[in-house]
Every structure is written in C-alpha cells, then in structure tokens.
Specification:
single chain; 432 residues; alpha+beta; Beta Polymerase, domain 2; Hydrophobic Seed Protein; 4 domains; seven-stranded mixed β-sheet; 9% strand; binds adenosine-5'-triphosphate; binds magnesium ion; nucleotide binding
Length: 432
C-alpha cells in the first residue's frame, strides 16, 4: 500500500508542477486517517480532463463526461477527476448535469458524508471544510449540508449511510437519521443494481448485523422489497423480540437487534457466506434467496454458489435423525459439489454461528471427514465411462446413461460399491 500512495503522490506532484491543484479525496483519505487500507485511491484536480490527458497521454478516458480519466503510474491505477459540482437531481437518482468548479471545497461539498468529504494534498495537509476529522474522532456519520436535501437529491445515500455506519461501527448523527427517515420513500427511484452494490459492500465489511438492524430500523426492507424475503423478515422480528426489542432512540435503535442478528453472521467470512447465513437465518427457501439475488443483479456465478450452499445445508438436515446425516451429506455433495462442501465448512467455522443454527460441532468435523474420504464425487471419477456402459449394455447411448452413472456414483460414494469397472458393470446389470 505504501508503494501505491507514493505513486499517487507522484501524480499529485506532476499536476502541481503544471500549475494545477490536486488532492487525494474521499474514501482513501478517510481510511488513511482511520489507519485502514483504502480500497482505491481517488484523486481530484483543478485540471480539466484534457490537461490531465496532455500530462498522461496514455491515461484512459474512463468517464470523460464526468471529468474522470484513469491514470496509470508504477503499475497502479488512479481515477483522476476534475473538481466538479452536480446539479439538477430532478429524478432523485442522478444529477441532470455536472459542471467543473475551481475550488476543491466546492467539489467536497457535493459529497455525501463529512468523513467522505476530505481532501489531502501531496504535502499531507488535509482540507476538511465540514468537520470530517472531528466526526471521525467522535465516530459519527453526518451528512454534508442539510440531510433531507442531500438524501432527496440521491436516495442511494440512505443505503450508503447504513453501510458506512455499519462498516465503522459509527453512530448516525440524529438529524442525519431524521433525513434518512424523511426521504426513504425516494429509494424507490434508485436502480436496484446500485442498491445491490451497496448492500453487497455492506455485507462484505464491518458489522453486517448492525447494517441489517439499521435497515430494519428504517423499515427499508418492507417498504422497498429489499431482498429480505417475508419469512426472513418474520424471523428477524422474532430474533428482535427474543433480544428484548429495539429501543427507540434513532442511533441506538439497533443495539439489541444487532446483537441477536450478529450471532447468525460469520464474522470473518466472505460476503457470499454472510449472504447465505442471512438467508438461512430468515429460513428463506433457496428459490426465494435466488429470486432476491437476481433482483439485486448479482452475477449468476454468485447466485449459484450461494444457492448451492443453501441447498446442501437443507439437504443435510432434511431428516432430523442423525443416522441419516452421512447419507444426506454425501448425496448433497454429489449434487452441489465439493466447493459447496468447503463453503459449508467455512460458514460453520465459528462455534457461535454453529450454535445459532444448531449445527453440532461433531457433525461439522464428521462431514469434513466424509468429504475427504469420498472415493468419487463426479461421474467422471468412476472407473467406467458412459460409452463403455452403453457398449456393455448393447444399447444406444442416451439420457439413460447419465441416470445410470449417477446411480452408480451414489453407491460408490456411499461406500456400497467398489469403484472398479467390473463391480460397476455388475451393479448396473443387477439394478437394471
Ligand atoms: P469504499 O471504500 O467502500 O469504496 P468510498 O468512500 O470510496 O468507500 P465510493 O462509492 O467508492 O465510496 O465513492 C467515492 C467517494 O465519492 C465517496 O467517498 C464520496 O465522497 C463520493 N460519493 C460516492 N457516492 C456518492 C453519492 N451517492 N453521493 C455523494 N457522494 C458520493
Ligand atoms: Mg471507493
């Protein structure tokens, strides 16, 4: 990360030498002050895009309309954006117009929260017109300017408010929270895809239990069909009840619910595993979960991954009889794959999450052993190929082959049959 900052400073200095102002801005300044590694380093400058392109002829014009070009330096990429303001917001979701401004303070004024509205020069001096440093110290999330106006301009900021409060464990300043509540109906205007990206970042970092609790505190899931299916919500309300109910103060609103919820969410896990835990906590059927993820524009690969994990879990516990677990697990792994099995192990890594879902620790350990001992997990692992089976049977190949091989695979995986061509052929004829 040090090398990336150094390369960034060189970009600032190059812009400075050509007579332009240039700063690090936004999330990277915030995270640097918090001592956290920033996800990406953004630069704002008084130079217009043409000047930046003149200085860096191989820069990529990634967002010229918005004044953004992407500069590459020492192998790192920096989005360099001309100081700008936004105007219009007649539709509550995107500015009608952007225009370039001369002063970095005007650029900072368009940003959402004070902690996101700071700039840092090449010499390390911080430009902080809205008290972002004080709010960082006080661990408070506060809108820049008048909250209701700012949330009204772009209602996505409501979800961002929840995301940043949860990621850093910050309290939401009371007038800012009042602005969230006053403007929440405008969230309808925001594209699901943008909301999905924010919810996903929310699940990936910090305290997703707190994030979900804040979303519930603002009644966002119910009002906007955020992807929290009905049974899920009912279950969350139950957890809330069990945890003693939410208190009324807007900022502390989530404390009790949060505790209840956080039990269900693996703390050190990827976003996909947390989503899976969230859906399981709400006893959402896999189809419901997949529907929800589609609405959020999740990539198909992720939807399948999370869906497979949910299905594997459900198939394991479809009988309460522990005698059936080995069989259920084995067939589940054949159906959903060993990647889903590894995800399941990771999801129930923590004793707290196991307790919340009632997964015995011995079962997790046993399941790991069962997976490792599987003699075959795909029909390709069988010692008999489909064409060999067709030849032995003297029948033309067809869909029957896949069905027959799958039956043999199950017997092999369950340890009922040896994985050699002879045994497989014999078992096939015995079963056919
Ligand atoms: P992260 O580390 O999660 O990416 P970030 O602060 O960098 O957090 P981004 O979404 O990457 O968040 O946005 C970069 C910066 O642009 C923010 O810090 C903020 O100053 C500004 N910004 C982004 N989205 C909005 C918005 N909807 N309204 C106002 N300002 C915004
Ligand atoms: Mg960012």
């Amino acid at each position: 990360a040090g090398a990336q900052w150094e390369a960034g400073v060189e970009v600032l200095q190059a812009l400075n030498r050509s007579g332009c102002e240039a700063y690090f801005v936004g999330g990277c300044v915030r995270d640097a002050l918090l001592g956290i590694e920033a996800s990406d380093i953004d630069i704002a400058t008084s130079a217009d895009p043409e000047e930046v392109l003149r200085l860096y002829p191989d820069a990529l014009p990634t967002g010229l309309k918005h004044g953004t070009v992407t500069v590459r330096r020492s192998g790192f990429f920096f989005e360099v954006t001309t100081f700008r303001q936004e105007a219009g917001y007649s539709d509550g979701r995107r500015p009608d117009d952007v225009f370039f401004v001369r002063d970095v303070r005007e650029d900072l004024a368009r940003r959402d929260f004070t902690i996101n509205a700071m700039a840092a020069g090449a010499d390390g001096a911080i430009v902080d017109p809205f008290g972002g440093m004080d709010d960082l110290r006080a661990r408070t999330l506060r809108a820049v300017g008048e909250p209701a106006r700012r949330f009204g301009e772009d209602a996505l900021r409501i979800v961002r408010c929840v995301r940043f409060a949860a990621r850093y464990g910050f309290a939401v300043d009371a007038p800012t929270w009042a602005g969230v509540l006053a403007c929440r109906d405008k969230l309808r205007l925001v594209a699901m895809e943008r909301i999905g990206a924010e919810l996903d970042k929310m699940m990936a970092a910090g305290d997703p239990g707190r994030a979900v609790a804040l979303l519930l505190a603002a009644s966002l899931p119910e009002r906007f069909k955020l992807p929290l299916p009905e049974p899920w919500l009912a279950r969350l309300r139950q957890i809330e009840g069990a945890a003693g109910g939410a208190d009324e103060a807007p900022i502390g609103m989530s404390a009790t619910l949060r505790k209840g919820l956080s039990r269900y969410l693996p703390e050190h896990a990827e976003a996909d595993l947390r989503w899976a835990a969230l859906f399981l906590a709400g006893t959402a059927a896999p189809e419901e979960a997949e529907e929800a993820m589609k609405r959020l524009h999740f990539a198909g690969k992720r939807i399948r991954r999370i869906g497979d994990l949910l299905r594997l879990h459900l198939s394991l516990f479809k009988d309460s009889d522990p005698e059936a677990w080995r069989r259920n697990w084995t067939i589940g792994v054949l159906d959903r794959g060993t990647a889903a099995a590894a995800d399941w192990q990771a999801l129930f890594d923590s004793p707290g999450v196991r307790a919340a879902f009632g997964v015995p620790g011995e079962l997790r350990a046993a399941a790991a052993g069962w997976t490792a001992a599987l003699p075959a997990v795909r029909v390709a692992d069988l010692a008999l190929r489909g064409d060999e089976l067709a030849e032995a049977a003297g029948s033309p190949p067809g869909p029957w082959i896949a069905i027959a091989l799958r039956g043999l695979l199950e017997q092999v995986a369950l340890g009922e049959l040896n994985n050699d061509a002879n045994s497989l052929r014999t078992a096939f004829f015995a079963g056919a």
